[in-house]
Amino acid sequence: MDEESIFLDYVGDSPRMRLLQHFIEGRDFDYTLTDMLQAGVSWGTLNTLVPKLEELNVIVKTRRIGRATLYKINHKNELAKHLITLYDALVLHQLKSVEEKTLIHA
């Protein structure tokens, strides 16, 4: 992750929040554990976080492909809905801010 994340600036840059951001950004897709490594979380941490997030019902198993289980953010979970709303609001705010700065300097 080379870019700064406004979401992580607000909620804190922890492995759990990086993983949740990964799920939120790709909310229409499901992911294997290997895919989740792209969130910048170690294998050992994933093996701890995924069962915990599943237990909290923030993520859900969607299907199996061979031996791999795929997971997705749970759109029916109230906490997940609020995190998605927060993420979207922060990104929108950042875009508006950049747009305003661009218009001022144009």
Question: Could you provide a short overview of the structure?
Answer:
The protein is built from five helices and two strands.
Q: Fill in the CATH topology.
A: Arc Repressor Mutant, subunit A
How many DSSP H or I helices? Answer: 5
Low-confidence stretches: none
Question: How would the global form be characterised?
Answer: elongated
- Write the H/E string, N to C: HHHHEEH
Strand content: 5-15%
CATH superfamily: Winged helix-like DNA-binding domain superfamily/Winged helix DNA-binding domain
Quickly name the level 1 CATH class. Answer: Mainly Alpha
> Which structural class should the secondary elements be placed in?
alpha+beta
Q: Major beta sheet, specifics?
A: 2 strands, antiparallel
- Assembly annotation: single chain
The average pLDDT score comes to 93
What's the CATH architecture? Answer: Orthogonal Bundle
State the strand order across the main sheet: 1-2
Distance between the termini: 30 Å
What is the share of helical residues?
Answer: 55-70%
Task: Determine Rg (CA atoms, Å).
Answer: 16 Å
Q: Would you report the number of β strands?
A: 2
Domain count: 1
Written description of the protein model:
This protein has 106 residues and is α+β, with helices and mostly antiparallel strands. The chain has one domain (6-105): Arc Repressor Mutant, subunit A. The protein contains five helices and two strands; from the N terminus they run H-H-H-H-E-E-H. It has helices at 6-11, 15-25, 33-36, 43-55, 78-105, and strands at residues 59-65, 68-73. The protein has a two-stranded antiparallel sheet. Strand 1 and strand 2 form a beta hairpin. The two termini are 30 Å apart. 19% of the residues are buried. The mean pLDDT is 93.
